[in-house]
Amino acid sequence: MWIPRAVEPRLAGSAKTRPVVVLTGARQTGKTSTFLRLFPKHAFVSLDLPAEAEQAEKEPGTFLQRHPPPVLIDEVQYAPGLFRHLKVAVDAHRTRNGQFLLTGSQKFTLMKNVSESLAGRADIVELETLSFAEIQAALPKADVETVVVRGGFPELYANPDIDAVAFYNSYLATYLERDVRSLTNVGSLRDFERFLRACALRSANLLNKADLARDVGIAPSTANHWLSMLEASGQIVLLEPWFSNRTKSIVKSPKLYLSDTGLLCALLNIRSEEALRQSPAVGAVWETFVFAQLRDRERRGGRTGSLFFWRDRTREVDFVVDTGGRLELFEAKWTELPDVGDTVNLDFVRNVVGKSRVAAGAVVCRTPNGFPLANGFRALPVTELR
User: Fold this and answer.
1) Could you tell me if 17 and 154 lie in one domain?
2) Would you say residue 351 has pLDDT above 80?
3) Does residue 52 belong to any structural domain of this protein?
């Protein structure tokens, strides 16, 4: 079963206007499958194959002769030496668009090579796991709690018989053995896995690198490096705070989120909807899920750098969307029936920043249908975050 991705029209449009289209994101998010579906006439080569990766790195000219455009090159980060030769190949036929489709699952490494060699020639698109909107469009009866626990990896919906626990155990093993070892010299994969689980315990919380390092028993510099690795491979996202001149006491640290709640639940040993309901981490898991849906909404709207959180020494609003100075405020609550008590922080922040700046405010919860709350706020199901 194929679930259409919201990013497909953008990819199709980019291939008509740019010579290179780069699709990045974590492993198993569907990058290769999406490209193959959209561009079936392109040749295909994967640098996951060591022989292909070695030739692409050491003999890039010969590699490109064997695989002339139009071509899809999968996991291109394994051959950084290829990028300069791609530039030459592109410039030789500058008016031909859609020549090279590139995928990569190590974002920072990929972006560095693209910015150095393909600046102005490539459109870069990030693909995350399936959003609830994408899942529900294909599977209208999809239950939100089931999706939270199962996560958004496409393979889990293409084949509903796949056991999610086994999938995530395999995913973690593959990630640790392949991406972690290739990204850097990690002395102990066991320590790194403990670090990843410690990050999961802190999802939807302020990032404190010193505490994280101390709990795992590693140096703060190591924790900082490993966090960068997790970001580079699309496993975590750091959300920055929103600032204004009138809120000098606001917190400066980012919040940490796991990218996908399925992986988060696996790391927290939450294996069913009932286990989720009983878990003390249910609020953090729900906030992580809402964050993913808001990221998807902002991406579909073509907005980057618009999503933040607000926090001072005593109060917090989970999410702030800043669009040209106009703000939307969101609180994430696991409840099905939020009340006026759940809007206290929304009201406080609205007064701090000025009511004229706040376009809307809502409590994103599990209610099946939205309804008004006090002070002009709303209870909002995730289905309305579109």
Assistant:
1) no
2) yes
3) yes
